[in-house]
Amino acid sequence: MRMIYKVSVERCIACGKCELACAFAHGSEGRPAKTRINIHRRGPELGTPVVCFQCDDAACVAVCPTEALVRNPETGAIEMVRDRCILCRMCVAACPFGNMLWDETYHCVQKCDLCGGDPRCVPFCPTGAIAWVPVEEAAIPPEPLDREALAYEVGAGG
Amino acid sequence: MPTLQINGRRVTVAEDATILDAARKAGVEIPTLCQFDGLEPWGGCRLCVVDMSLASWDDDWFKVVTSCNHPVEEGMTVLTNTERIIETRRVVLDLLLARCPETPLIQGLAREHGIDQTSYAPNPEPDDCILCGLCTRVCDHIGVSAISSVNRGWGREIAPPFHKAPPDCIGCLACAEVCPTDCIPYSTSNTRREIWGKEFEMLRDPKTGEAVITKAQAQHFAERSGVPTTYFETSDASKRRQMAKTFERLGQLK
């Protein structure tokens, strides 16, 4: 079954768990890596998760001088072959959505590869704003998030 | 898939693998300096030498080869810790330490091989460059070739043509990034960047003023990939911000 990474902006509460999950999943020795999913925080508990779109005709792939970016036909993700990367950061500059990230800690480019078909950020999302679903379900509009009920549930609503 | 023996360990690797690839797969450590996964092997530093014998050769006949660029063959025997290999590595490191007596990377490697002080006359003008050629190879690979090695012997160094600001340099800093001893000086700020004696104007985000790459870089990328230069104008953080705003607008349209 073909799976797809689905983002429902309406449901994001900007808790940042996906960012943490990503940073630690791709770091080593307890040092977080640069997170490949970034929440644009636009108000209290309002966020827009921004993550790689795995574009069909991707700018990062077009500029890479060493063909280090290749699509994985199984997951549909554009993956980085680390053995070929020469750290020129052309892809970072070229990505029109800012989803190629330069990691100062590890001195490498971080790029969402959908964790090889099991995105590590998804199980951490408390509201289902990000999900890993079969392609057929991708177009189903997300249910609106009852923010007041959620606040009550976690004890913040008093 | 050829099978070979490295220090007595059997390992099977791909047809186009090198001895170094096979050694890494077998868990045998071979020191390297000029090797970088993204680039063609070069065999410049001579630190990765190993003893190698083919199945068709006499049993006691071994040849010293650089493992980083020597292809594997069926039935090959490789030894990485024979006396003459250890001695060869020591000489290489001794010479490197004479050239770069103050470079931590070389000092560390030399100490691992039991050399605290070089037995040659140390370089009176200590230099951090080990002439591994990584910077020039990376530059070639990007398709710029702004720098190269000049002169020979003792006077050999990495420099732009005629020691003047290189006209082809795009200021991408890939050479400085890949340098194992961090010996390529540069300065970069939000407005200007300087490397190899050439000054660059930065391409700044029209809204936030943040700068990521130089104007020359954007032009070079655009030419070789067909991606329009406008792609490079904004910083990645501000691109994400724009993207997030687009999503919000989509929500309101529904």
Mean pLDDT of chain A: 87
- Rg calc of chain B: 24 Å
The CATH class label of chain A is: Alpha Beta
Largest sheet strand order of chain B: 2-1-5-3-4
Low-confidence blocks of residues of chain B: none
What does this structure look like?
The complex is a heterodimer of chains A (158) and B (254). A two-stranded antiparallel sheet of chain A has the order 1-8. The relative contact order of chain A is 0.25. The longest helix of chain A has 9 residues, at 17-25. Chain A is α+β, with helices and mostly antiparallel strands. Chain A starts with a strand and ends in a 5-residue tail after the last helix. Chain A has helices spanning 17-25, 59-63, 90-94, 147-153, and strands at 3-7, 38-43, 46-50, 69-71, 78-80, 101-103, 108-110, 130-134. Chain B contains 8 helices and 11 strands. Chain B is globular. The mean pLDDT of chain B is 89. The A-B interface holds A 9-10, 38, 40, 42, 48, 50, 59, 62-63, 65-66, 68, 82-90, 92-101, 107 and B 36-39, 138, 141-143, 172, 174, 177-178, 212-213, 217-218, 221, 224-227, 231-232, 234-241, 243-245, 247-248, 251.
Question: Characteristics of this structure?
Answer:
heterodimer, A: 158 residues, alpha+beta, Alpha-Beta Plaits, two-stranded antiparallel sheet, 4 helices, B: 254 residues, Ubiquitin-like (UB roll), 2 domains, five-stranded mixed β-sheet, four-stranded antiparallel β-sheet, 11 strands, 32% helix
Describe the structure concisely for a colleague.
The complex is a heterodimer of chains A (158) and B (254). Chain A has 158 residues and is of the alpha+beta class. Helices cover 16% and strands 21% of the residues of chain A.
What secondary-structure arrangement, pairings included, does this model have?
The complex is a heterodimer of chains A (158) and B (254).
Chain A: E1 3-7, H1 17-25, E2 38-43, E3 46-50, H2 59-63, E4 69-71, E5 78-80, H3 90-94, E6 101-103, E7 108-110, E8 130-134, H4 147-153
Antiparallel strand pairs in A: 1-8, 2-3, 4-5, 6-7
Chain B: E1 3-6, E2 9-12, H1 19-26, E3 49-53, E4 63-66, E5 77-79, H2 83-99, H3 104-112, H4 134-142, E6 148-150, E7 157-159, H5 174-178, E8 186-188, E9 192-195, E10 198-204, E11 211-214, H6 215-225, H7 230-233, H8 236-253
Parallel strand pairs in B: 1-5
Antiparallel strand pairs in B: 1-2, 3-4, 3-5, 6-7, 8-9, 9-10, 10-11
